[in-house]
Write a structure and sequence with these properties.
By secondary structure, the protein is of the alpha/beta class. It has nine helices and 24 strands. The strands form eight sheets. Strands 1-2-3-8-9-10-11-12 form an eight-stranded parallel barrel, surrounded by six helices. Strands 15-16-17-24 form a four-stranded antiparallel sheet, with helices on one face. The structure holds ligand QV4 and calcium ion (CA).
Amino acid sequence: MKLLLLLVAVGLCSAQYNPNTRSGRTSIVHLFEWRWDDIAAECERYLGPNGFGGVQISPPNEHITVTSPWRPWWERYQPISYKLCSRSGNDQQFRDMVTRCNNVGVYIYVDAVINHMCGAGGGEGTHSSCGSYFNAGARNFPAVPFSSWDFNDGKCRTGSGEIENYGDAYQVRDCRLVSLLDLALEKDYVRDKIADFLNTLIDIGVAGFRFDAAKHMWPGDLKVITDKLRNLNTQWFPNGARPFIFQEVIDLGGEGISTSEYFGIGRVTEFKYGAKLGTVIRKWNGEKMAYLRNWGEGWGFMPSDRALVFVDNHDNQRGHGAGGASILTFYDSRLYKMGLGFMLAHPYGFTRVMSSFSWDRYWVDGKDVNDWIGPPSYSDGSTKPVPIKPDTTCGDRWVCEHRWRQIRNMVIFRNVVDGQPFSNWWDNGSNQVAFGRGNRGFIVFNNNDWHLDATLYTGLPSGSYCDVISGQKEGDCCSGRQIYVDGNGNARFQISNNDEDPFAAIHVDAKL
Ligand code: QV4
Ligand code: CA
């Protein structure tokens, strides 16, 4: 009996690290600023058929609207209430999206902004996405309702009320992040309001949450809130399934707060991953791909089963939170595809793919002053739909990285090699590297300025394979280059440094 109870307890806890994706689906995609109607359609027509496990959505609750002169993307990070109406759609559209995505096995992960409400300078009125009245100066949000005693104004010890020193954990948790009114998460009332909001989403059918600004919340408060959460909706999930939690904690080392403080609650974003991978692929600071042999914990990252990993996110692709010049984005598409290829082939962490909208970058003194620009929108500020072109790419300013052949095929590669060990590493001591995943898949990179011509042990069964980077298997044909694995598992790879994409990947589902 004791053993049984223990097993149940372990099962309950460990589930928060489990993304709840359908078996054989191993990645999620962040459809940044997409409308609910478009996400529902994308689940059905693209994400389901191509093996994506889920979607991280932009915050679904009511937020401030800022119109000076156009609406920035970041208004979504200034909550006004927990009503489900936002720039992406209303309550009914949200429920329709969750149902339709769940029905095709693509699950929804909500970006939960629970550390704060809008900025202290947010003003008074009904300039909010559902038209709810609020008064930022008076700390009054009647649509929740929250009032002045639900905020940390009295608790913060800095003169400005702002976070002034990231080395001081108290300031980081109890003071205001860029003037955002900081909620008093130690109060039962505030905890209950947040848990009610998250439980409403769970009942609708979401599979988990990104905790925005988790570093700015005490782990103990988050633990109490997550303990109040119900199990997932059994219409789609097994009995007793717990919501997946991944927490946004930026820890590049050297600050007062470390990611490990949050492991008791769920997974945590590993920001070192994209920063380091970008440095290696750009060949900065003497880095080379040969050093990736012990990628993962060997590079000082958190344990793999606690990590949520990504090449770039909606902040650091535009110089916000932990944005550094090394971060690879769609603007550097050739290097970006290699970065995604490496991430999706490598077993470390749970992987998230970014899907962006583009904007005209305008650099002034090393800073992009257009970093605020919002998604494609009409003159009234409402977000435009995502048009799909005949060649399957997206129109307007929607970049749809997840629809790029190389990236989508690597999402499939990761599913095919799921559970297989990292194996058969090879490198030339410089920037030509290769590795496999057991006997299911193999990938080769040439990031040197010269040709790669090497016969490598792949671990794969003999036969002809279609490279899923230069093309893909279509029926019995291969639209890209073919690779022949001989009876000993060896194959000759020839990759020019001038190839459109200087890497190649084969797996057992792309065998001809
Ligand atoms: C400005 C000044 C303040 C000043 C204030 C006065 O910067 O110093 O006190 O005016 O009113 C926007 C503006 C910002 C403005 C603020 C309040 O950009 O200039 O303050 O609003 O009006 C996003 C954006 C922020 C944006 C915020 C709210 O990145 O620029 O602020 O949304 O709209 C750290 C954190 C990490 C965080 C990261 C960006 O540790 O948690 O910074 N990342 C998450 C999200 C991110 C989001 C937030 C947190 C906040 O991923 O997108 O910030 O919810 O590293
Ligand atoms: Ca806080």
